[in-house]
Design brief:
This protein is mainly beta and 429 residues long. The protein is 3% helix and 49% strand. Strands 14, 15, 16, 17 and 18 form a five-stranded antiparallel β-sheet that branches. It is globular, with a radius of gyration of 25 Å.
């Protein structure tokens, strides 16, 4: 009995003295290059795998979040999934296999031209003999509806995202019955986010009948004015551009044929409070700032052209000027939103995806994630993933309850979470 008791005590002692598992501490492998050329190492807060193979080929190109999760693609067992991952630790909240729309490349899929309204994500799709919109429920990952606009006889402008306002989304297109040599848009359509039902907005004779055959609608910008939905429409004809205002409730055009500089209106726009910023293309391209209440033009800049989106930080509008030589780095600049004058400018590697702001800093990625002081234009650092890949997606996560802001970057292999730049810090050491 004593021997048995001694044996039990020894076993208990061995197991009770077993070392407790320690939390995983990431190795500081990711490079941060300070602007003076010094190299530092910074650890990620967490890292989550996005594939169980060498690489994944599905991409989400924008910052889409829902209920403390972010949208991305993952591959498991040679299957491509759209997934919502936790912003806290990268764990999978849900995953749904994607419908294959293109032959020969089952992983060729992307979420780029999309509009989010709460849990609803309206995404444009293009497949073999089909194109249109689908709606994804970000709470479950299930597809709620899809509409094939080709079957409805509508050609959609497939290089710009749907422009949404609450439960409505707008897009440019034309009836397929209009046989044109150039795939230009001459109509505006409105869809319901929750049902997918689409209708055509009434289109007046915006310009004289002689030039209506060359009408090209390039801009659709919905906004609220006096609690009513209005749509600022930009259109072009014979190398001249115009804007007009459509009242959604009364289904009437309140103002039209307001001439603006430039040859072709494009879909890049930004608005906040009573100001809007739109852009035109061509040899006389311009950035145009106007009053959203009256459509009066405040100022124009004919020497720059924003194409990749615009962000606002303090008194500045910030974006990439895409009119530079395609072989040269584009100019990344801030202009005063009241005067249009340049405040700061830098030249940087080509960026092809959105610009974000967080805590007075501006972020974009070119495969590397760049952090820039948005008030001064000073380049603080850039990050690269330690798996040898390139970043293809950036997610901004604002700190809550005193927590620090974070940045999530997705490469072809992993999602990484980093501490964002803070106002009290200019470098990481």
């Amino acid at each position: 009995m004593k021997i048995y008791y001694l044996f039990v005590v020894c076993v208990f002692y061995l197991f009770s003295c077993k070392e407790e598992p320690q939390p995983y501490i990431p190795e500081p492998k990711d490079s941060v290059e300070i602007i003076d050329g010094a190299i530092y190492k910074t650890p990620y807060i967490w890292r989550a795998p996005l594939t169980d193979s060498d690489h994944k080929n599905g991409w989400v190109f924008t910052d889409i979040k829902y209920n403390n999760g972010f949208l991305t693609f993952i591959t498991q067992d040679k299957t491509l999934y759209l997934a919502l991952l936790s912003c806290d630790d990268g764990q999978i909240i849900w995953k749904e296999p994607r419908k294959i729309r293109r032959e020969g490349s089952p992983f060729d899929d992307g979420i780029e031209l999309a509009y989010q309204y709460d849990r609803y994500l309206v995404n444009e799709f293009i497949g073999i003999g089909e194109y249109g919109y689908e709606c994804i429920d970000l709470k479950t990952g299930k597809q709620l509806w899809e509409t094939n606009t080709k079957a409805q006889g509508v050609w959609i402008e497939n290089i710009s995202q749907p422009c949404g306002l609450d439960s409505l989304f707008f897009f440019r297109g034309r009836p397929l019955s209009m046989q044109l040599e150039l795939e230009i848009s001459s109509r505006i359509y409105c869809g319901n986010v929750k049902t997918g039902k689409i209708r055509e907005l009434p289109m007046p004779q915006l310009i004289d009948s002689i030039h209506m055959d060359s009408l090209n609608v390039g801009l659709v910008m919905p906004y609220y004015k006096d609690n009513q939905i209005e749509v600022l429409v930009g259109y072009s004809s014979h190398k001249k551009s115009y804007i007009a205002v459509y009242n959604y409730k009364s289904q009437t055009w309140e103002r039209k044929n307001i001439s603006v500089p430039g040859e072709i209106c494009n879909q890049t726009y930004y608005y906040n409070n009573n100001r809007f910023v739109i852009c035109t293309l061509g040899d006389s391209a311009s950035v145009i700032c106007g009053n959203i209440e009256t459509t009066e033009i405040n100022w124009t800049r004919p020497d720059i052209m924003y194409f990749l989106g615009i962000v606002e930080l303090g008194d500045y509008y910030i974006g990439f000027d895409s009119r530079t030589n395609p072989y040269d780095p584009p100019e990344f600049s801030a202009i005063n939103k009241y005067t249009g004058e340049t405040v700061w400018q830098i030249f940087e590697t080509h960026a092809v995806y959105p610009v974000y702001t967080l805590n007075n800093y501006v972020y974009f990625h070119t495969g590397l994630i760049y952090g820039i002081n948005g008030l001064t234009g000073k380049k603080i650092w850039h990050l690269k993933p330690n798996d040898g890949g390139r970043f293809t997606q950036v997610i901004m996560v604002s700190g809550k309850n005193g927590e620090k802001d974070r940045i999530i970057g997705c490469s072809g292999g992993y999602a990484y979470c980093y501490e964002a730049l803070q106002d009290i810090k200019t470098t990481r050491k």
